[in-house]
From TrEMBL, chain A:
Belongs to the ABC transporter superfamily. InterPro entries: AAA+_ATPase (IPR003593), ABC_ATPase_HisP-typ (IPR030679), ABC_transporter-like_ATP-bd (IPR003439), ABC_transporter-like_CS (IPR017871), MetN_ABC_transporter-like (IPR050086), P-loop_NTPase (IPR027417). One of its GO terms (molecular function) is ABC-type amino acid transporter activity. This is Amino acid ABC transporter ATP-binding protein, PAAT family. SMART domains: AAA. Signal peptide: none annotated. CDD domains: ABC_HisP_GlnQ.
Automatic annotation (TrEMBL), chain B:
One of its GO terms (molecular function) is transmembrane transporter activity. It is a multi-pass membrane protein. The chain crosses the membrane at residues 20-45, 52-78, 84-104, 138-159, 188-209. Pfam families: BPD_transp_1. Keywords: Amino-acid transport, Cell membrane, Membrane, Transmembrane, Transmembrane helix, Transport. This is Amino acid ABC transporter membrane protein, PAAT family. GO terms for cellular component: ATP-binding cassette (ABC) transporter complex. Belongs to the binding-protein-dependent transport system permease family. HisMQ subfamily. It is found in: Cell inner membrane; Cell membrane. It comes from Pseudomonas rhodesiae. Its main location: membrane. GO terms for biological process: amino acid transport.
C-alpha cells in the first residue's frame, strides 16, 4: 500500500534521510521509533507530501507522491494525518472541525456528514463536546478530535506524528486507547512515537531510525525485546530507564 | 457669543451638517469596502510564490503609499476626464480613498495571514485542501481576527480622512461646514459643530471595535 525506496532528504548540506526503504501493507501497523533528529518525523511528513524529498521514490496506493504534483490532493484525502500539536481549527467547533474535510474537500451532503461526524465523536468519547471550541478542551481531548477529523475523510491509511508527545502524562492513555481501537479494526497505520508500551502491544512492526537510516526493523517483540544493533540497545535503555543509568549517557 | 446665540445658529446649521455627515458615512463605508477588497487582492498577490506577482503587488503598494492622498484624488477627479473617464465627485472620492487606503489594508491583511500558525496550513493540506479552499476556510478567518485591531484603526482613520474629499467638491460634512462658514462667518459655531459630529461618529466606533476585539480574545482564551 505504501512503498518507499531509497528515500533521501536534505536541508541544505544537512542530510536528514540517507536512502530509507520501507513497505507498509494494508492493515499493517508500523511504529517508527528513534531519538529526536533521527528523521522519523521527516519520513512521515514526506509520505503525505508535507515535505518534498530529494531522492528515491514514495508510492502510495500505486501513485507516486511528491510535493507539488497534481495528484497530491487526492492522495492526501485518502491518508489521515494526526499532528503532535493537534492543529485543530480554533475558529470552528469540535463538530465543525470533524465535518470540515468531508463537507468542503469531498463535497458530501451536510446532513450525512453531520451524522457521520457525530458517530466519530461518539467513537472517540467526545459526543458531549460537539459544540465546544478546541481551546475549551484538554490536550488529550483535542487530539482525539483531531483523530476524528482525520477519520471523517474515511482514509485508507493513518499517519500519526508523535500524537502523545505534547500531552500531560495522565491524558496519554485515552488517545492511545483510540489508536488501539483503530488498529484492531484493521486500519493501516504509521505511528511515530516514544510510547514503547504502545509499540510493543499494537505494532506489527517496529522500525528504529538513527541518523537518517533505518538501523533495525522487525516484529515489535524482536526489536524492542531483543535488539541486535548497539544503537537500538542504547536508545531503548535510555527510553525505558530514563533515570539512573549514567553509563549510557557518557 | 452667548450660549443662546450658539444654540440658535446650531439649530440653523445642523440639518445641513447632518446631510454632510450622511455623505461622510457613505464615503467612509464604500471606500472602506473597496479598500478592503483591493487590499486583500494585493496581500494575496504579495504573498504569492510567483515572483512576478509579488513584485507587481509590492510595487503598486509602494507607489500608492508614496503619493499624497489629495494628489491621488485630484488625479482621479481632474485628470481622468482628460482620458475620457468621467466620474461624479462622489464616486471619484470613493475610488480615490479606496485605492489610497488599499495599500494599508494590504499590509493589515498580509500581517494577519503570515501570523496564522504553520500547523493550520499543514492540517488543511493534510485534509486534501487546495490552496484556495484553505485560504477561504482556514487561513483568512483566523487572519482576520489577528488583523482586526489594525483593520479597525484603518476604518477610524478613513472616517476622519474622508474629509479630504471635500477638496474635490464632494458635499460631505467638512465641505458643508466650509460652505456655511464662508457665507455666515460663524467659524467658531460651525467648526465646533463639525468637530463634535466627527467625535459623535468616531468615538462609538472606537469603543465598538474595542468591545469586538475583547470579545474575540476572550473567546480565544476561554
Amino acid at each position: 500500500m505504501i512503498e518507499i525506496r531509497q528515500l533521501q532528504k536534505h536541508y541544505g548540506s544537512h542530510r536528514v534521510l540517507h536512502g530509507v526503504d520501507l513497505d507498509v501493507a494494508k492493515g499493517e501497523v508500523v511504529c517508527l521509533i528513534g531519538p529526536s533528529g533521527s528523521g522519523k518525523s521527516t519520513l512521515l511528513r514526506c509520505i503525505n507530501a508535507l515535505e518534498a524529498y530529494d531522492g528515491g521514490v514514495i508510492t502510495v496506493f500505486g501513485e507516486t507522491v511528491q510535493r507539488g504534483s497534481k495528484t497530491v490532493h487526492a492522495l492526501r484525502s485518502r491518508m489521515g494525518m494526526v499532528f503532535q500539536r493537534f492543529n485543530l481549527f480554533p475558529h470552528r467547533t469540535v463538530l465543525e472541525n470533524v465535518m470540515e474535510g468531508p463537507l468542503y474537500v469531498k463535497g458530501e451532503p451536510p446532513q450525512q456528514v453531520r451524522e457521520e461526524a457525530l458517530v466519530l465523536l461518539e467513537k472517540v468519547g467526545l459526543s458531549a463536546k460537539a459544540d465546544a471550541y478546541p481551546e475549551q478542551l484538554s490536550g488529550g481531548q483535542q487530539q482525539r478530535v483531531a483523530i476524528a477529523r482525520a477519520l471523517a475523510m474515511k482514509p485508507d491509511a493513518m499517519l500519526f506524528d508523535e500524537p502523545t508527545s505534547a500531552l500531560d502524562p495522565e491524558l496519554v492513555g485515552d488517545v492511545l486507547a483510540v489508536m488501539r481501537t483503530l488498529a484492531d479494526e484493521g486500519m493501516t497505520m504509521i505511528v511515530v512515537t516514544h510510547e514503547m508500551g504502545f509499540a510493543r502491544e499494537v505494532a506489527d512492526r517496529v522500525c528504529f531510525l538513527h541518523g537518517g537510516y533505518i538501523v533495525e526493523s522487525g516484529p515489535a517483540e524482536e526489536v524492542l525485546g531483543n535488539p541486535q544493533h548497539a544503537r537500538t540497545q542504547d536508545f531503548l535503555r535510555r527510553v525505558l530507564h530514563p533515570t539512573g543509568n549514567t553509563r549510557s549517557l557518557s | 457669543m452667548s450660549p443662546a446665540e450658539f444654540l440658535q445658529n446650531a439649530q440653523d446649521f445642523l440639518p445641513i451638517l447632518l446631510q454632510g455627515a450622511w455623505v461622510t458615512i457613505q464615503i467612509t463605508v464604500l471606500s472602506f469596502l473597496l479598500s478592503s477588497a483591493i487590499g486583500l487582492v494585493l496581500a494575496l498577490l504579495k504573498l504569492s510564490p510567483i515572483r512576478a506577482l509579488s513584485w507587481t503587488a509590492s510595487t503598486i503598494i509602494n507607489v500608492i503609499r508614496g503619493l499624497p492622498i489629495i494628489v491621488q484624488l485630484f488625479y482621479i477627479y481632474f485628470v481622468l476626464p482628460d482620458m475620457g473617464v468621467h466620474l461624479t465627485a462622489f464616486y471619484a472620492g470613493v475610488i480615490g480613498m479606496g485605492i489610497a487606503y488599499s495599500a494599508y489594508q494590504a499590509e493589515n491583511f498580509r500581517t494577519g495571514i503570515i501570523a496564522v500558525e504553520q500547523g493550520q496550513r499543514e492540517a488543511a493540506e493534510a485534509l486534501g485542501m487546495r490552496s484556495a479552499l484553505m485560504m477561504r476556510r482556514v487561513i483568512l478567518p483566523q487572519a482576520f481576527r489577528i488583523a482586526l485591531p489594525p483593520y479597525g484603526n484603518t476604518l477610524v482613520m478613513m472616517l476622519k480622512d474622508s474629509s479630504l474629499v471635500s477638496t474635490i467638491t464632494v458635499a460631505e460634512m467638512t465641505r458643508q461646514g466650509q460652505l456655511i462658514a464662508s457665507s455666515t462667518f460663524q467659524n467658531m459655531t460651525v467648526y465646533t459643530l463639525v468637530a463634535l459630529l466627527y467625535l459623535l461618529m468616531s468615538l462609538p466606533l472606537v469603543y465598538g471595535l474595542r468591545r469586538m476585539e475583547q470579545h474575540l480574545s476572550r473567546r480565544k482564551k476561554a
